[in-house]
Design goal:
The chain is α/β, with parallel strands linked by helices. It has two domains: about 5-165, Alpha-Beta Plaits; about 175-375, Rossmann fold (3-Layer(aba) Sandwich), CATH 3.40.50.300. About 40% of the residues lie in helices and about 20% in strands. Strands 1, 2, 3, 4, 5 and 8 form a six-stranded antiparallel β-sheet that branches. A hairpin with a 4-residue loop joins β6 (about 110) and β7. The protein is elongated, with a radius of gyration of 25 Å.
Length: about 375
């Protein structure tokens, strides 16, 4: 799946309880628009272009699959909800909250209502100082200058003072206390998408199953009896090799590991697809390998009803998956549930996502993250 967009926002306020305004805005963005992954320090600056109380400013980095125009629409709605009244005049004025899109990936966007990068960012301390905190390597795609270079050439002579810090919402999750999270689910459940989002949002090393390289998979869906055993054996060998290598290679720049599978899925699928005598032989090999594998600190199973699974499979368009029978998906789901019930040494969490869409709806994604947080820290 395509990586999320990386978007920088500038936040400002000069009315009421300013720190509280910024905190409320950040949490509202995180819970309803896009995932907040970086938060700068808070800076105090004088009002720009008019007489008014000093401003508190900060910048945040957000991740989202939404387009720039959709983000803009959501931001305008949020500003209104938080008490800002927009006027038709172009004059500067006091505001309870001001949210500007500063950059959107490395793109240059010029429409009637949206200019990215923001046309004035290179001349304003209250934008550049917070940006330096969260995106020190960012380069202006038009001016071809880094943040450091822009800070050495700006014309803004106003004073700026560091006020303090605000909490990054993703730090509340507690995921950094874990070493290894496995996201599991049936075919088409969304496990790869969720694992990828969590890795991008929470600075985790991502391990994705290499199913696309398995030459037996398309053949299996056409003739299950003939290709079931070589398929399951090849999957087992590949999963064992990949997890052994990736889990052993610790990345100093990542906080934990998240994978879109756990090796026990091999036995779940094999039990459904193999004949009894084949499964006995298979399980002998599996048990040897399973003893060697590290167990995840948290095992998340995404439950999807069969109708949603079939819809997702059709939508992603892999030709060899289009004829998967309903009863096969139901057997796989039951195999997962039986496995979870039988394991006393695995910290497992089942999340029913049949009626939610965590890609389109930020609220649904936050629901999943909160379920994980409650499992990690019940108190």
């Amino acid at each position: 799946m395509k990586s999320q967009n990386t978007i920088l926002l500038s936040l400002g306020t000069n009315m009421g309880h300013k720190l509280e305004n910024l905190e409320t805005c950040i949490m509202a963005i995180h819970n309803t628009i896009a995932t907040v992954v970086e938060v700068s320090k808070v800076y105090e600056t004088p009002a720009w272009g008019f007489e008014g109380d000093v401003f508190y400013n900060c910048a945040i980095t957000i991740h989202s699959h939404k387009s720039a125009q959709k983000i803009l629409g959501k931001i305008i709605q949020l500003e209104k909800k938080l008490g800002r009244t927009r006027t038709n005049t172009e004059q500067y004025e006091s505001r309870s909250i001001d949210i500007d899109i500063i950059s959107f990936n490395d793109e240059i966007i010029e429409t009637e209502n949206l200019k990215i990068p923001h046309i004035h960012l290179q001349n304003r301390k209250f934008v550049l100082f917070p940006m330096r905190d969260i995106a020190p390597k960012w380069k202006h795609p038009k001016l071809n200058k880094t943040i450091s270079e822009l800070l050495n050439s700006y014309e803004d002579t106003s004073t700026i003072k560091e006020i303090g810090t605000l909490q990054n919402p993703t730090l509340y999750l507690g995921l950094k206390q874990l070493n290894y999270i496995a996201i599991e689910g049936n075919i088409g459940a969304g496990k790869t998408t969720l694992a990828t989002k969590i890795a991008e949002d929470c600075n985790a090393k991502l391990i994705l199953e290499r199913f696309a390289d398995n030459p037996f998979l398309p053949k299996f869906y056409k003739d299950q009896n003939r290709y079931a055993f070589p398929l399951e054996m090849s999957f087992l060998a590949d999963r064992y090799q990949q997890l052994s290598d990736d889990l052993a290679q610790f990345d100093l720049f990542k906080d934990f590991i998240v994978a879109d599978y756990h090796i026990f899925k091999s036995q779940i699928f094999a039990k459904v697809t193999l004949q009894e005598d084949e499964f006995r032989l298979y399980k002998t090999m599996f048990d040897i390998m399973y003893k060697e594998m590290p167990k995840p600190d948290l095992y998340v199973y995404l439950y999807q009803n069969t109708d949603r699974l079939l819809a997702n499979i059709k939508k992603r368009g892999r030709s060899y998956e289009q004829d998967i029978p309903t009863n096969y998906l139901e057997k796989i789901n039951q195999g997962y549930l039986d496995y979870i019930k039988s394991q006393t040494d695995i910290n497992a969490l089942i999340i029913d996502i049949s009626d939610i869409d965590f890609v389109k709806n930020q609220e649904d994604y936050i629901f999943i993250l909160n379920e994980i947080k409650k499992k990690i820290d019940p108190d």
